[in-house]
Design goal:
8 helices; alpha/beta; 5-stranded parallel sheet; 5 strands
Length: 180
């Protein structure tokens, strides 16, 4: 593993949190989930968004991440929230966080399937199955929009399939072969 700090980015429902936990356990390094950190330190994400709106959440979540990255553990895996680093995040926060992530670690885009339409379907089904009152069509379109944004950041991709979800073994292989 060339970097001791690994970041997983991607749309909601792509598997970032699950992979972060699994990789942390296998490598015996701390793993973190930005959504979980927000819930523990600030408020439940859904409740916060209902009270204050998405833009306020995005800014607050960005500040939470920026504060965490001021003195991050020397070894860690971090699953970023789905909107972090997307174009939904206001500038200059987005650029500041992108620069910081690129400077202190290695980020990987988690993609559940190589075909965007299939991936969007998989993710939308996962998202509505979580019981947050989300709508299938809206989640599908959000995935398609955000995956294009994340691809434009040029982070290495880790891609799964319907028959073979992303495994820790695959993640370790991709991390080891990465020149990051």
């Amino acid at each position: 593993m060339t970097s001791q700090r690994i970041f997983f980015i991607g749309p909601g429902g792509s598997g970032k949190s699950t992979l972060a936990q699994q990789l942390g356990e296998v490598k015996q390094i701390p793993y973190f989930d930005l959504d979980e950190m927000f819930c523990n330190q600030i408020e439940n994400v859904r409740i916060f968004i209902r009270k204050h709106g998405y833009q306020a959440y995005s800014q607050r979540n960005g500040k939470l991440l920026l504060n965490f990255l001021e003195t991050p553990p020397s070894r860690m895996v971090l699953a970023l929230s789905s909107g972090i680093l997307s174009e939904d995040m206001a500038e200059p926060m987005r650029s500041i966080l992108l620069s910081r992530v690129r400077t202190i670690g290695s980020a990987f885009l988690i993609v559940p399937h190589p075909d965007d339409e299939t991936a969007a379907d998989m993710v939308a089904k996962r998202q509505i199955g979580r019981g947050f009152g989300l709508e299938y069509d809206r989640e599908r379109l959000k995935y398609l929009r955000r995956i294009a944004e994340y691809r434009s950041l040029n982070f290495p991709k880790i891609v799964g399939s319907q028959t073979a979800p992303i495994s820790v073994k695959q993640v370790l292989f991709e991390i080891d072969r990465c020149d990051c």
